[in-house]
Amino acid sequence: MDLSVIIPVYNEEESLQELSEWINKVCLASRISYEILFIDDGSSDSSWNKITLLAETNSSVKGFRFRRNYGKAAALHTGFANCSGDVVITMDSDLQDSPDEIPELIRLIKEEGYDLVSGWKRKRYDPFVKRITSRFYNRTARWASGIKLHDFNCGLKAYRSEVVKSIEVFGEMHRYIPMLAKEAGFRKIGEKTVQHRSRKYGVTKYGLDRFVKGYLDLLTISFITRFGKNPMHLFGFLGTLMFLAGFVMAGYLGINKLIFVKQGLRAPLVTDSPYFFIALTVMIIGSFLFLTGFLGELINRNSSERNNYLLKDKVNI
After folding, report:
1. Which of 143, 145, 175, 309 is least surrounded, with the fewest CB atoms within 10 Å of its CB?
2. Is the pLDDT of residue 285 over 80?
3. What is the rounded CA–CA span in Å between residue 275 and residue 272?
4. What CATH fold (topology level) applies to the domain 3-227?
C-alpha cells in the first residue's frame, strides 16, 4: 500500500465526511493506494457514528475509538501501530490541513529520500497572540533540538513507514516527533510550506495552557534524548560540581579559622558565618543529585529496553 493517512478526531463530526471525500478524490486522481485511519479520541458528539458510516461505504476507511479522551499523542501512537502504508501522513480532522498536499509529500519521501517532512504554515489563520507565542515556542524548539523547522507543531507531516514503527509517542510528545525521529537515527528531516485553511466547523480544542505544557514537554524530551540512557552523566556531573563547590566553601572557612588561631587571635565560630550553612546545603544537594544519577543508572540497568538498538540494514542474515 502506498499511503496511510492517520487522523486524530475529537468532536469533529461536521468535517469528517468532507475530509474523507477530499482525501479519496486526491488519491484516486494521483493513483495512490491508500487507507484512512480515524482515531476517535473519546469524542462526546457523533464523530464515531460518522466514522462507522464512512467505514461501511469505503473499505479504505478504518476506525479506532478510545473509551475516553487520552490526547493527540495516544491517537497518533495507535495510528502508527496499525498503519501499513509505505508513506504515513498525519493531519488534523478540522479541515485546516489540505489533502491537496498529499502527492507532493509522498514525492518528497519516496523520490527525494526524506525520512520525515514537516508542514510549515507560513501564512496562518490564527489569532495574533497564538501566532506570536507559536513563533517564540518554535524558535526555542529549534535552539534546543538543532532541527531547523519553522513549525514543530504542525499536524500535517509525512513519514517513511520505518520512522513511525521505530519511535514511541507518549504523553503530549506529538509536538516533538521530529526530535524523537532524530534520536532514533532518522536524520534527513525536511520541511514543506503547506496551506493553512481557516476553521470551517466547530471551535479549537486547545487553550493557552498548551504553551506551558509545550515548554515542559520540551524540557522532558531534551532530557530523554540526551541523558535517557546515561542519567549519571547529568546528575553525577551536577552533583559532583555542587559537592566540590560546597566543600571549597567549607574549606575556606576552616582555613580562615586556623589562620586566626595561628596568629593568637580570637577566632569567630564557623557556624556564625552564613557561608557555613550555604556550603552545607550545597554539599547536601550535590550528594542528592549524585545519588539520583546512581539510582537512575540502577533503574536503567534493569530496564528491558536498555539494549534495544535500531538496525538500519542487514546483509547475508
Report:
1. 309
2. yes
3. 9
4. Spore Coat Polysaccharide Biosynthesis Protein SpsA; Chain A (3.90.550)
